[in-house]
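Notes from hallway chat w/ T.B., transcribed later so I don't forget. T.B. wanted the structure written out for a chain they're using in a teaching module, and asked if we could keep both sequence and structure tokens in one place. Agreed to drop them here.
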Amino acid sequence: MTTIDNFDWAGKKALIRVDFNVPLNNDFQVTDDTRIRAALPTVKAILNQGGSVVLMSHLGRPKNGPEEKFSLYHLVQPLSQLLETEVKFGGDCIGDNALESSENLKSGEVLLLENLRFYKEEKAGDLAFAQKLAKHGDIYVNDAFGTAHRAHASTAVIAEYFSGNKCFGYVMAGELQSVQKLMNEAEKPTTAIIGGAKVSSKIGIIENLLPKADHIIIGGGMSYTFAKAQGGKIGNSLCEDDFLDTAKEVLKKAKEQGVEIHLPVDSINADSFSNDANRALTDAMNIPDGWMGMDIGPKTIENYKQCIMNSKTILWNGPMGVFEFENFSKGTEEAALAVAASTKNGAYSLVGGGDSVAAVNKFKLANDVSYVSTGGGALLELIEGKELPGVKAIMS
């Protein structure tokens, strides 16, 4: 794997695709700078060797060209503070002014280009657009794992113009190594904690993990599809009726392969989708009409904790309940604490997916697990065994 450590950066200009798709409030202030902080080691390593850096990213989903709320200009000040150096702003990503700014960049300086998705050519993977972007640097660095599953101009196509001068940054390298460790070097017993709303979005990852895992813990809204598939009564709980047969098939395959699927035995239910709703604890297979499952119950928590604590390798993707509501967050919090405790005891833990990352951050446990992935869809596709365009572009 070629990384920035394979290059001498003195006098070189790095064109780095970063993932600065961060949330902003109504005053255009960054409310979560996790992705920006993740890119800092790559940027600083190049600057410390005497290189200069041109950063490019997308932000949000602009529809028709430039929009104030999606301008990367809003990131200049917080990025400057984090890097402890002035960050220049390109004002565009392919225009003459932007190109002039990158051409005049001196050793140790940083330039941030404007939002790539202000141009439709970015998502279209346009060759001419990629070629214009390529003029900004001597060496191309892909450090945007969150977009590695997209064949966009800046994530995959651009690499064609940097033959022999392309590599991964530390974020990308770390992500690929963490998944490699999970899928091919896992110490047993291996446990995958899979939660979230829908079976449909997680079926690929579950099926690909069956040959690797010893235990698969199911939580969140998707668990009620499994409950109904087994003949349970789930009231008004979230359910994908189109995936009942799929759920049955997963249980069948798991049994054939000796993988233990752990499903909720009790459920915390609500009479409406609200933090202030009335609550009731029932058997997970017998939720009354008019009630919906919102979190795993205390017996399930204990079962899951015991499994997690006995594991040597852990993947966590998806919450156990509606953890955004305080009254229905206990299952997710207890799972997070168990993963952290197991990690402290020597287990390797990989946490990935937006909600899981939000959960470990909410419960202030991000530093207590082995690796927190910056990618949602990209991580899932990699674990599903798919080839990511952004990875292939550097490897080939």
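Follow-up for T.B.: The chain has a mean pLDDT of 95. Might be a good example for the class.
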